[in-house]
Amino acid sequence: MPDPDAFRAAAATNPAWPFVEARKLLDRYPQPPAKGHVLFETGYGPSGLPHIGTFGEVVRTTMVRRAYALLSDLPTRLIAFSDDMDGFRKVPPNLPQQDMLAQYLGQPLTSVPDPFGTHSSLGAHNNARLMAFLDGFGFDYEFVSSTDCYRSGRFDATLLAVLANYDAVMAVVLPTLGPERRATYAPFLPLCPETGVVLQVPLIARDAAAGTVSYVDTRTREVVTVPVTGGRCKLQWKVDWAMRWVALGVDYEMAGKDLIDSVRLSGQIAGILGARPPEGFNYELFLDAAGTKISKSKGNGLGVDDWLAYAAPESLALYMYQSPRKAKRLHFDVIPRAVDEYLAFAAAFADQPVEQQLGNPAFHIHGGAPPVADVPLTFGLLLNLVTVAGTDDPAVLWGYVGRSFPGTSVATHPDLDRLVRYAIRYARDFVVPTLVRRRPDAREAAALADLDARLAVLDPDAGAEAYQNEVYEAGKAAGFEPLRDWFKALYEILLGTANGPRMGSFVALYGLNATRALIAESLI
């Protein structure tokens, strides 16, 4: 590994997006800030459980944080902020005790009872799930609760600043609202002193000196005056976002492309409050298999647990790293390629010059040199082996692998063993149900017979290159032009798929005699 100075020098101009983002923070603080550190933030709405968007935002922010740490000696912190003071708007259908929960609509999430009975509130339950989720991936972060900040007084000074600049804040927000919403909008949401409900009510008066706002109670028709401090009010979310940036001193936060206008508006409000809005960038949203935006409420996307059932976390982190400003499908069929691309990047790292190492996704996934994983074959090839061998027994599959790659075993190659087991699950759930082997036409049958004759004269241990050469020669002799039509035919006839592996590698893994038997079966 090069020394840190070599890495820092190369990182100063490296075009990898985490370094591009990190250099924004270098420009932000040519001199150390008074607080003595740079603060990164990610946000979470605890009305539901952590999801793949939560993972994506934290892992990408962590990549920028690590890139900045390579460029600067200034300490950094990452906070995972939970907006658990938000009102409980609707009962998610996947929660128990639906009738009980319905009685608490409008309450802050930290005032809604936990339907699972394990925590003090629904907000606390989901916050615990968030922390367990982040801890499971080894993220370095500090958890911050909105409720704690409001009730402890941590936000009080900034809340009073919002009240003091009420008209300027309203002048920014109101033009973005429709006529009906504009007529009743107020940035402060009082909590009803009697019910605790977060109220969406017009304000009829405000007193910046006293730090209070007033509204008409819709039940009693009486005027109620409450402090904006101490957790007696919360802010509408766009104003809340700006207030949080200012109160906590946030320097960097990402957001989805759908929040571009909100980021701009909250940035204006932060400026009104006398602070510079954080740096950051807007990432594109994920799409489902049909190209529709993934929605947590619709459940039309791929979850973190879904992905991790079939592949290691590093492959998911790679998918998050690649082209964050480009809309991408997030579906089960992207997993095999992500796995193989990660393995290729990790394997290439050690032999790359510093500039390429810093642009290697594996560097950003691991915050440095990736661990060495001795995996001599691809996930795609393993999937083909599982489907053609017709077994989900790891021991049987290891028989093929151990013969093709002498010296490998479950004990000596744990990463490969995990890959075998992932391949079994993925093939069982997504590949085997779609297999459709077709009959060869006359030209294809003749070419297959010729290929079998060519393989028959080879030694069973001839190796992948020798087998691949004979596959090429059989296709050329049969007049396939372009030659990829020949390989497509082999995949469809022998494997039952439209795409497949390098055939020489497949023959070496599956076995010469077994491959010849597969050809013979296709010609019956």
Describe what is shown at a glance.
The chain has 524 residues and is an alpha/beta fold. It has helices spanning 4-11, 17-28, 52-71, 98-102, 122-136, 146-152, 156-164, 166-173, 179-184, 237-248, 260-272, 304-308, 313-321, 335-349, 354-359, 361-366, 379-389, 394-404, 414-431, 442-456, 464-477, 484-495, 503-510, 512-522; strands at 38-44, 76-82, 142-145, 188-190, 205-207, 212-216, 223-227, 233-235, 252-253, 255-256, 282-283, 286-287, 328-329.
Q: Give the C-alpha Rg.
A: 29 Å
| CATH architecture annotation of the largest domain | 3-Layer(aba) Sandwich
Strand order of the largest sheet: 3-2-1-9
Average pLDDT metric: 94
Silhouette: elongated
The description of the largest β-sheet is: 4 strands, parallel
Question: Which helices and strands occur, and which strands form pairs?
Answer:
Layout: H1 4-11, H2 17-28, E1 38-44, H3 52-71, E2 76-82, H4 98-102, H5 122-136, E3 142-145, H6 146-152, H7 156-164, H8 166-173, H9 179-184, E4 188-190, E5 205-207, E6 212-216, E7 223-227, E8 233-235, H10 237-248, E9 252-253, E10 255-256, H11 260-272, E11 282-283, E12 286-287, H12 304-308, H13 313-321, E13 328-329, H14 335-349, H15 354-359, H16 361-366, H17 379-389, H18 394-404, H19 414-431, H20 442-456, H21 464-477, H22 484-495, H23 503-510, H24 512-522
Parallel strand pairs: 1-2, 1-9, 2-3, 10-11, 12-13
Antiparallel strand pairs: 4-8, 5-6, 6-7
Helix pairs in contact: 2-3, 7-10, 8-11, 10-11, 13-14, 17-19, 17-23, 20-21, 20-24, 21-23
